[in-house]
Amino acid sequence: MAHTCRPVHSATATGSICARSSSRSKGSGVAAVASCPKFVGLRRLDSKSGSEGFAAVLGGVSSSSSSSSSSTRGIVSMGGSGKFFVGGNWKCNGNSESIKKLVDDLNSAKLEDDVDVVVAPPFVYIPQVVSTLTKRIDVAGQNSWTGKGGAFTGEISADMLADVGSKWVILGHSERRHILGESSDTIGKKSAYAATKDLGIIACVGEKLEERESGRTLDVVSDQLQAFADSLPDWSNVVIAYEPVWAIGTGKVATPEQAQEVHAAIRKWLSEKVSPEVASKTRIIYGGSVNGPNSSELAKREDIDGFLVGGASLKGPEFATIINSVTSKKKVAA
Ligand code: PEP
């Protein structure tokens, strides 16, 4: 994945050489930014971003007040490689035949160029997917062990994932936290080890409904982020997935305002606890009942840098629609 359009940073603002200093003329569109042919997203430039927004998150799932409406907007480059990021988590679904069809559908889909796309098949199908899926799309594991391997029945090591061609691993998914009982401490150890194998990490965080309703969203997400921060050597190959548990697999998607509020708060947390540079570069993607129809409105929000998709990633054409929702972000940025 090419790294272009690196952001620049100062004590007061986070900007981008390519977007801010180019001679981009009105109506010329993103493609006309001479030194930055890649996607240009939106980033809030005021120093208050996210702080007030989080208070509104604490009230419950029906909260819809937006921190973005009152903030100063400025066009700067997307975090990380400057690309939207969409991951498909296939969970424990499929068989050889259905996965062949899904791969065929993805291979024939027309995908926007400026999106990093990753799919996470069940472990046993990773070799099939790696050998048949277009190289345009990377493959991820849905989990990995805390170390190299050995007498750990049922586990898969990061070494094994890398060996069969995976470039990424999803860690901290709520189904592993809350169904399999994984602690943040274990997830941190898994992350630390996966990083030594050069796997990109999709680091999942998110609150349960009762945590949101009791005003603990920020505390929960911050604690989960801290466990990643304590374990990761750096954030250069990490994408944060904000996935409110109440929205996963429930059909109850967070409103764009709710998602934006938490994403802005996560970026603020990164800025304060890690560094402004990491806050600017790290992509923060949303997960929780994202589908074809709702993806374009979510994608327009300035701190939503892509999606982690469960159910809808099992349908090739719909997953392609979600990937291509980057076009709605580009329209907002234009
Ligand atoms: C997920 O599993 O990460 C997820 C977001 O699932 P769904 O899209 O089905 O809610």
Automatic annotation (TrEMBL):
The keyword ATP-binding appears for this protein: no
InterPro entries, alphabetized: Aldolase_TIM, TIM_sf, TrioseP_Isoase_bac/euk, Triosephosphate_isomerase, Triosephosphate_isomerase_AS
Isomerase among keywords: yes
Alphabetically ordered keywords of this record: Isomerase
Pathway info: Carbohydrate biosynthesis
Superkingdom in the source lineage: Eukaryota
Subunit-structure text: Homodimer.
UniProt record similarity statement: Belongs to the triosephosphate isomerase family.
Name of the protein in question: Triosephosphate isomerase
